[in-house]
Amino acid sequence: MRLLDRVGNLVLLCALTGACTGQVSTSEGNGSSPGGAGIPSGATSTGGSPGTGGASSGGGGVMTPGPQGTASILNLPAAPLSTTGLHRLTAWEFTNSLQDLLGHDVPLAPVEADTLVGGFATVGASSVSISPAGVGQYETVLGNATAFALKDATQAASVLACVPKVTTDTACMTQAINAFGRRAFRRPLTSAETASFLTVATNIGNQSGSTALNGVRYALWGMLQSPDFLYRVELGAPSAADGGRLKYTSFEMASRLAATMWASVPDDVVLDAAAKDALSAPAGVVAQAQRMLADPRSHRSLSAFVDQLFDAFSFSQADKDMTMYPAYTPTLRTAMLQELELRIDDMVFTQKGDYLSLFESTSTFVNQELATFYGVPFTATDGAFHRVDLPTGTPRVGLLGSAAILAGHGHEQLTSPTHRGKFVDEMLLCRTIPPPPPGVPPLPAMAPPGSTVRQILTTHRTQAQCAACHALMDPIGFGMENFDTTGQYRTVDNGQPIDASGTLDGMAFTTLAQLGTALRKNAAVGPCVVSKIYENALGRLPVALDGPALDQLITKFAAGGNRIDQLFVDLVSNDGFRFVAPKQ
After folding, report:
1. Averaged pLDDT for residues 292-297
2. Which of 354, 364, 403, 363 has its CA nearest to residue 525?
3. pLDDT at site 72
4. Which of 350, 338, 339 lies closest to 298 in space, CA to CA?
5. In this predicted structure, what is the pLDDT of residue 65?
6. How far apart are CA 560 and CA 563, in angstroms?
7. Which residues make Cβ contacts (< 8 Å) with residue 373, sequence separation at least 6?
8. pLDDT for 226 beyond 60
9. Quick count: other Cβ atoms within 10 Å of Cβ 389?
């Protein structure tokens, strides 16, 4: 039975009408995974290349060389902006928000799956709504979560600004509702909203066998089912000081900052700054961004971005033939993903160094199981991950040597230079690889017995309709052929020596290490990661109108030593983030 049917209360119906009808308040109120983000459960992907518009948008194309440090290298499509001002919470944002609002140990369960557009859930979240079945999922999960968080006065004290003992203590109930609501809605509640939720709390609390705390719990349950929580509402308002351009208000900026830096709701500090309109100018935004970046919550936001950039969705779907690869266990897969997250987290937050150096790095993080898989000496016995330096001359060089990337782009039994090359093209170089044309023949069964994957693909490319696209992907993917489909190092394929030679934009290589060097030196890699972070933060595909904003960010990124931590600060204070549309 639905929540409204169980309660049978007209006041509660009024309070939750927005959740049932999908109506969203646009009022500005009175202020004018553990250990990583993880993989979104049940996510679906529409493909496409985020940096160039992707197949899903019909824009973009193969990248053409341009001046280093400028957005021209990204070949942004001349398409209109695709933004609604409404962003459904992604799986990461929903989980993080509830943990920040109700406590880290709040019980949670999967809700409606994310839709990945060009690999990013944040882009998909700007164009999807919650289905009727999804409404029921949210209701159940939120009901269990609020029941746990407010099960007694002691537990509730860590969640509420004031814990009421009786329903006649309206001052305490109002304080609790307003303080919680301001964070959940990312803005102050209107007086009408406060009155509605207070009425719910009072009426439920006064029912036979109920309590004031139970009444507040129902008010919070309704609040968290509202579109004002489940969607980030960021519409902007005309700014006279900026020629009438639509500019995000301070409370909308607080919402955007929290989503970008923490993948969650704002805290009271940034909301207090918004109440003073301190987020209307870049200096105020920078001050909050630097504070938020120093908070541990920023690590989980980075992990969510890393999982999407490096295609954790494909990794989550990458099943292997366990008779051929018995070492590819569920715990090993978890370790592989965590290794990738830790490598980038370390560079961003600990080393504060050059992101591009990761493509040539031989330092990584392993636990005992992953160290054994990699053949790395490891003496720790605490079960935790530790930073290690791979042996001199190791073939496992750079991020492309991470097993999560290698295993995520391979078949059950064989490697796939095509899939591996496509990943590099789309996610690291911001190129668009068009989908296969109709009638493409399968990989040739007539290949001689004992053929290597490389020889099979070479035969495949003799088909005219296959040659053009495979010529973009395969020569890159061949550089990873010394690693089997689980990411294990090997020297032979089907009994023949591995040929890992290839080319990247005219730069030849014969090993994975040389491929990493070619990537680090490629003029597109820096601008591409800037574009990806920009896209993920804005929740939409960059277009030509974003060129000037991206130019500024790309130039600063290169001049500052390719530091991701500084890029986040520069991004949120950039006009591309602070205004609804780029200046025209």
Report:
1. 98
2. 354
3. 85
4. 350
5. 35
6. 6
7. 327, 332, 403, 487, 488
8. yes
9. 11
Give the DSSP per-residue string, 513-579. Answer: HHHHHHHHH-TTHHHHHHHHHHHHHHTS---GGGHHHHHHHHHHHHHTTS-HHHHHHHHHTSHHHHB
Q: With contact defined as beta carbons under 8 Å apart, do 113 and 41 qualify?
A: yes
List the single range of 54-68, 89-103, 527-541 with lowest mean pLDDT.
54-68
8 Å CB contact between 297 and 100:
yes
Q: What ranges do the domains of the chain cover?
A: 3-43+82-114+125-232, 303-521
DSSP letter, residue 125: T
The predicted pLDDT at position 206 comes to 98
In angstroms, rounded to a whole number, what is the distance separating the alpha carbons of residues 275 and 254? 10
Check: CB of residue 233 under 8 Å from CB of residue 22. Answer: no
Q: Is 478 helix (H, G, I), strand (E, B) or coil?
A: helix
Average the pLDDT over 418-422 and give the result: 95
CA distances from 51 to 16, 421, 444, 514 (A): 39, 16, 33, 25
Q: Tell whether the model's pLDDT for residue 295 goes beyond 50.
A: yes
Q: Looking at residue 117, what DSSP letter applies? A: B
Could you report the per-residue pLDDT of 395-415, keeping only the tens digit for each?
999 999 999 999 999 999 999
* Distance from C-alpha of 229 to C-alpha of 235, rounded to nearest angstrom: 15
- DSSP designation for 356: G
Rounded to whole angstroms, the Cα distance separating 232 from 256 reads 8
Residue 316 has pLDDT above 50, yes or no: yes
Evaluate the CA torsion angle 215, 218, 222, 223 in order and state its sign. positive
Quote the tokens at residue 373. Answer: 């898989």
Which single residue is written with the structure tokens 């007694």? 152
Rounded Cα–Cα distance for residues 415 and 493 (Å): 10
Write out pLDDT tens, residues 41-73. Answer: 567 665 543 333 333 333 333 333 334 457 889
- C-alpha span between 278 and 284 (Å, rounded): 5
**What is the phi/psi pair of residue 389, to 5°?**
-100, 125
Is residue 307 within a helix (H) or strand (E), and if so which, with residue range?
Answer: helix 297-309
pTM for this entry: 0.89
